[in-house]
Amino acid sequence: SLFSGRALLWRRSERRLDTEREVRAALENRVLLLLFSARRCPRCREFEPRLRRFWSRLTDPAHVERPEQVRLVYLGQDGCEEEHRRYVRDMPRTWMALPYGDRLGSELSQRFGVSELPAVVVLAPSGAVLVPNAVREILDSGPSCFRNWREAAELLDRNFQEREDTERSVPRSLSEPLRKLKYRLWDQDEEEEEEEEGEEGK
């Protein structure tokens, strides 16, 4: 899990999700939006109202099918803890946030190649990157882009599952079929010997 061993702040419950089980239950099997932003950033402040409207419609069953299949985690790039605290306090109740000072935020920024703020990295439930930065897509397409993300995520996950199934059906080594044949013949020889011994004992 991307946030394995980490705590998350959940605005809805006004508390921290501290256990692995709580974090996994909140995030697994969902399209995940990672929001890299900072309160002091002018472009972030300009994007914020549009993102909130986007999120409001995205999580409304009247506009989007299965809205519960998406989560957003704020990875603040704030300069101080007070800025971060104010952002978390004012963010929508269904958003989550990485606590201030957790180095995972910087690590994920580097991992996903975030080069500008704001950035919204969209991940499939499997963790695969669907969109490296969806800011432009959110502004241009609105909630309809979620359908594309979900379809891409389902396709990726289906291919991953099919690949796993295929790998399970492939012999673990080239010698495995021969080894199975040898054991089968060995079992057959044993059965024949037992039958012969039984006939001799009559």
From TrEMBL:
Q: Which InterPro entries match?
A: RdCVF (IPR029520), Thioredoxin-like_fold (IPR012336), Thioredoxin-like_sf (IPR036249)
Residue ranges spanning the membrane: these are: none
Highest taxon above the source species: Eukaryota
Q: Which residues form a coiled coil?
A: none
Question: Which Pfam families does the annotation name?
Answer: Thioredoxin_8
One GO term (biological process): photoreceptor cell maintenance
GO cellular component, alphabetical, reads:
mitochondrion
User: Which residues are the signal sequence here?
Assistant: none
Thioredoxin-like fold domain mapped to chain residues: 29-129
Question: Mind telling me what this protein is named?
Answer: NXNL1 protein
